[in-house]
Specification:
Order of helices and strands of chain A: EEEEEHHHEEHHH
Strand content of chain A: 15-25%
Number of domains of chain A: 2
Largest sheet of chain B: 4 strands, parallel
Shape of chain B: globular
Radius of gyration of chain A: 20 Å
CATH class of the largest domain in chain B: Alpha Beta
Number of strands of chain B: 6
Number of helices of chain A: 6
Structural class of chain A: alpha+beta
Largest interface: A-B, 34 and 24 residues
Number of helices of chain B: 8
Helix content of chain B: 40-55%
Number of domains of chain B: 2
Distance between the termini of chain B: 65 Å
Shape of chain A: elongated
Strand content of chain B: 5-15%
Structural class of chain B: alpha/beta
Largest sheet of chain A: 5 strands, mixed, barrel
Helix content of chain A: 25-40%
Oligomer: heterodimer
Chain lengths: ~250, ~200
């Protein structure tokens, strides 16, 4: 039986070995959401499109639909971001965290997620462009991806009672900053600069973000990571492996 | 669903990588119909490989003694060390007859999505070997994919301050292939690594 074909723009999120020479490719597509497809023979050196299906590539892909997994039939590279990370270990680890987050925020296959797709493409493009610090790009992506999923941290008004801020206490479990009346025991107290940086990253104020201090970036990264891990319940494997040393290429 | 020993064998064979239920059934019935001597030899080989094969204490290649054949060979160069991901990569390089140095098997490549970072590989052991001062060139022969390249970049970052020459296997067009079918990354690498004639 001839399987229906479809064509779409897609980001390669993950590749896994399958059998002797095949791979299972996890794609985040523009119109079809997250899709898993088999790419046959791509581990052989004679493969005609194996190089284009490496992680973090933006590709124009044609697949045939299958009952459990689709099959990749043709691939054209549009912007293979992965090659920009090969000589930059910190950016490579950050790209992995971005890809894993995108995969985890699309739990249902074939459910379109255009905003997350555009956000992920934008984050990988910014990471490949090397114009901004790696940790800032990663944290901005994580904050905006969480906002897309409905888990944006409250950074100004109290997360519990919406009492207007600014507030100093931050509770991961409560969902962000909390006022003195709602503050649970064990709430953290990030610096105001750290909260301002998270606001800047969430709102896309890159002038303020670029001007931030390295120590402040480290503190806000810790809160962003903790907030994400709390909401995802099962932690991201790649996030603890992100190399926070700033890239030599910047 | 079969009963007893034949179903047990199908279940066990089905747990092997790349063997589905149909293949497991076909192999089990092949075992059943094959000559008893052949099957005893297969069973003995399976038992022996688990009992006698271990990892070399120096390079972590597979070995049947404390050290592998390559680490025991006094004719091999001590000043060149080739880093590979898996023991099967050692065999692939040995088939070329181009390299007469020693090896170090990492046991995989850095793959954060699978939770594999530098601490899960034998990088600490590699650094200990390099600190002896015998090695003057480190050849990074990890796979030419994203994980392999990232591993090579990480190792280069760690090793270069030690004053050791670090080189990477060349990437380019496969022998016998057509240029028009090469993807842009491979072709780009081939251009980067072009040589004068």
């Amino acid at each position: 039986m001839r399987r229906p074909l479809y064509r779409d723009d897609a980001l390669v999120l993950r590749v896994q070995r399958l059998g002797e020479a095949d791979r299972i490719i996890t794609l985040l597509t523009r119109r079809h959401g997250r899709v898993r497809a088999v790419a046959k023979g791509v581990r052989k050196t004679t493969s005609r499109f194996g190089g284009r299906l490496e992680p973090f590539g933006l590709v124009d892909v044609q697949c045939s639909e299958g009952s459990t997994l689709d099959t990749v039939t043709q691939v054209e590279g549009k912007d293979l971001f992965g090659r920009h990370f090969l000589d930059d270990y910190p950016r490579y680890t950050a790209a992995n965290a971005i890809a894993e987050t995108a995969e985890r925020l699309t739990p249902v296959e074939r459910e379109p997620a255009l905003r997350l797709y555009l956000l992920t493409v934008g984050a990988l493009r910014a990471l490949a462009g090397r114009e901004r610090a790696t940790t800032l790009v990663l944290d901005a992506y994580l904050l905006r991806a969480m906002a897309h999923a409905g888990w944006a941290p409250a950074l100004r008004d109290c997360a519990v009672c919406a009492n207007p801020g600014p507030h100093r206490a931050f509770s991961i479990a409560a969902g962000g900053v909390v006022c003195p009346n709602c503050r649970p025991p064990g709430a953290a107290h990030p610096s105001q600069a750290s909260l301002d940086l998270m606001c800047a990253l969430l709102e896309g104020d890159w002038v303020a973000a670029d001007a931030s201090d390295v120590k402040v970036r480290g503190e806000s990264s810790g809160f962003v990571a903790a907030h994400l891990q709390w909401h995802l319940e099962r932690g991201l494997r790649s996030l603890p492996l992100v190399d926070r040393r700033e890239s030599q290429n910047r | 669903m079969y009963e007893g020993a034949i179903q047990d064998l199908i279940d066990e064979l089905g747990r092997l990588p790349g063997i589905g239920p149909k293949s497991a059934q076909r192999l089990a019935f092949h075992v059943l119909s094959a000559d008893t001597t052949d099957i005893k030899r297969l069973a003995a080989a399976l038992t022996r490989v688990k009992e006698e094969v271990r990892f070399c204490s120096t390079c972590y290649n597979v070995a049947e003694a404390e050290q592998c054949r390559i680490c025991r060979d006094p004719r091999r160069r001590d000043d060149a060390l080739c880093v590979v991901e898996e023991p099967k990569d050692v065999i692939a390089i040995e088939r070329t007859n181009e390299f007469r140095g020693r090896y170090h098997v990492l046991g995989g490549a850095i793959n954060p999505l699978e939770g594999i970072g530098p601490d899960q590989l034998r990088i600490r052991e590699l650094m200990a070997r390099l600190s002896s001062g015998d090695v003057s060139e480190l050849i990074l022969a990890t796979d030419p994919n994203t994980e392999g390249e990232a591993t090579a970049t990480y190792l280069a970052l760690m090793v270069k301050p030690m004053g050791i020459t670090v080189s990477r296997l060349a990437s380019g067009l496969p022998v016998g292939g057509d240029l028009e079918y090469a993807d842009e990354i491979t072709l780009g690498r081939a251009f980067e690594g072009r040589r004068k004639l």
